[in-house]
Amino acid sequence: MAKEPIQPFSTAIIEGVAAVLGDTSNGLTGSQIEQRLQEVGIRDIDPTNTKWKRLYNALANRQNRDQTGNCVVALIVAAMKPVRFVDNPARFTYLQDGLNEVLIHAGVRVSDKGQVVWVKGGAATTLDEAAARAGRIRTELRRRSTHPEVVHYCTDELLAKNNFHAVLEAAKSVPDRLRTMTGLGGDGAKIVQATLCPAHHPVVAINSGATETDRSEQAGFANVVLGLVGLYRNPTAHEPKIHRTNSDDELLEAMTTLSMIHRRLDHATVGAPGP
Q1: pLDDT-derived band at 125, boundaries 50, 70, 90
Q2: Where does 159-205 show beta strands of DSSP type E?
Q3: What is the dihedral of CA 230, 257, 242, 101, to 10 degrees?
């Protein structure tokens, strides 16, 4: 996010950020709060209060003085430096998700690099519904161990409660990964056919191809990928959103299926294209 003046955050947003970072179980400790505030030059005006109120009072006081939201962003970035979570990456994810459920309503989010970035599509409009839904969907995706390649492509859309575009962006992850793995061009069915479909020497092979069973498995996998491109990518790319809806269950089903494909590609071998 740029360093120019940022519009002040609402009281609700600052309260939410303070509540997440001051969480009793996974938030900052008292000494960490002192260190992070000092690091970004924010005065700790209420050091004896509870952790979240201490953070809220410090942020609100500084924002009122500066009339910008830069202090809030600075503290989040200082608190969410990934290097500080090397020994406990799950804690980073917990805090990131909690912050994002709040920040989505200001049109920003915390990235995997710990930076505060703008969300495509702008801020959510219904605070309670969107926050509850963002937490529910992301919790379920974590429970299902959704492949990170899938989530990477549609984080903004998930936070913005945009199932239609979340499925579309997630479906793009497979052709893009095949291009990255092989260096070949093309999109949709074209790249799938060029990389997965050759019967005896596929460019991207999910097994040794030594037996008829192996070759049948490869062909079946290729057909699944081709089917998913047709099911999730092509209709959403060519038909107006108003004519299609994607429920939360349909979204989760799509993410689970796309995750299965990426897990097979994790262990695939890549060879040279045939003649």
Answers
A1: low
A2: 204-205
A3: -150
